[in-house]
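Slide 14.
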Amino acid sequence: MGKIASMCGRCGGRPELRWPRGVATLGLAILAAGLTGIYVWIGRQRNLEGHMPEFIGLLLLAGILYVIGVFWVFWVERFRLGAPALLIILASSVLFRVVLLPAQPSLSDDVYRYQWDGRVQRAHLNPYVVFPNSPGLAGLQNPDYPEAPGANTPTIYPPLSEFAYRLIETVPAYKRVSTIFDLASAGMLMLLLAAMKQPLHRVLAYAWNPTVLLSFAMSGHFDSLAIVTLLTALWLLITNRPALSFGALALSFLSKFFPVVLLPTFLKRTRLAYVGLFAFIVFMFYVPFAGAGLRLLDGLRDYARVWEYNVSLFRLLYFVAGSRTGAELIAGLIVLAAIGYLAKRHAPPLWSSLLLTGGVLLLSPTAYPWYFTWSIPFLCFYPSAAWLLMSVTNVLAYTPAIANGGGEPLRNSFLLFLSLEYGPVYVWLAYSGWTALKPKIFRNQPRVGASDN
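Slide 15: predicted structure.
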C-alpha cells in the first residue's frame, strides 16, 4: 500500500512549484464549506430512510471532498501550511460535529442498547445476565424506541463501556459524550504527530472523515472511547512510558475488544511483565460483574456465532471451509500469522495498528460501517490510498440491500452494493501489491540473451 504523499513525486529535476500559502489555505476553506453544506443537510433530515439515494450520493460526494482534503494536506506540506490552515481544519472539524449532533441516530440503533444497559445497571441488575426481552423488564425500555437491539442477547460490551453507560441517561447525552471522546482522539493524534515530528495538519485525515462523523456525532457509537484510549496507549508507548501504555491499552480493550490484536506489538517494545498489569486491570474491571459466572460471555458468544453483516473476504473463507466455524478458524489463523509477522519484523506500532485493525475487518463476518473508524486514525501517518477509499465506500453498507441482508426484494442489488463497496479497494490493494513485488520478480529473472558461461 503506497502513500498518497508518494503520488506527488519530484518534478523531473525541475524547480518545485511554490504556491502562495494563502492559496493553499483558501483551498482548505472551500473544501470545508462544501462539507459543511452536506452535513447541514444530513443533520436536518428526520427520516433518512426516505431519502437514502440522496444520502448515499451526498456522503460519497463528502468522501470525494475528504480525499481531496487529505491529498491537499499531504501534498502542500511542501508549501508549509501555517497556523491559519490548522485553525480551519480544527474549527471545521468541530463545526461538522455540531451540525450533526441534533440529528436522529437513524443509521443505527446501538445507542438505544447502550441506554438500556445503563438502565439495567441503575436498577442493580447485571447486564451480562439479562436482556431486553427478559420477563418483567419492559419498564426499562425507552418508550420512544421500545425495541432495543439484541433483544434476546445479554450485552456484548466490555466493562468500561458498561460503566460509562451507567452514568449517562439520555440519547443526546450519549451522542455528546461520544463526540467528546472523538474530539479527544483528534487531540491525541496531534500529540502523536508532534512526537513523530510530522505536521499537525495531517490530523485532517481523521477529523474530516465522513465515517468518523456519522459514527460518533450522528449515531453516538462508543467506539470513540476505545479509540481515544488506544491512541493514548500508543502515544505513551512511543514516548517510552511502558507501564502507563499497558494501562491505557487495557482500558481500550475494556471499551471494545479489538485492541487485543496489538498486545504483541506492545510487548515487542517492552517487558513481558507488563502483561501482568494488563491482565490485572482487566480482571478488576470484570469483578463487579462476576455474579454472571459462566454466563459472563454469553452475549459475546452469541455475537460470534450468529451475527453477520457487510461481509467481504469472510464469505470466500466460508466457501472454502464449508462452515462458519471453519471460516472463523482460517480467519483467526491469518490474523495470528499477521500479528506474528509484524512483531518479528519490529514493524512500527502505528503501521501495525493500521494493518491489523483494517485486516481484521476484511476477514470478519461482521463489518459495520462504524467499525472502520478503528483504523482511520492511522491514515494520519500512513495515508494508504486503498484504505482511504475503504473509509469512504463503506457508507454503502448503510443501503437497505445490505442492512436487510439482501433478502427479497433486494437480493439482486445485494451483491452489486457489496461489489461497489469492496471491489475498488481490493483492486487497489492488488495493484499496490503487484507494484511492490514487481521489482523483486524482475530482479530475479535471467537476462535475455545472457551467456550460460
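Speaker note: DSSP finds 19 helices and no strands in the chain.
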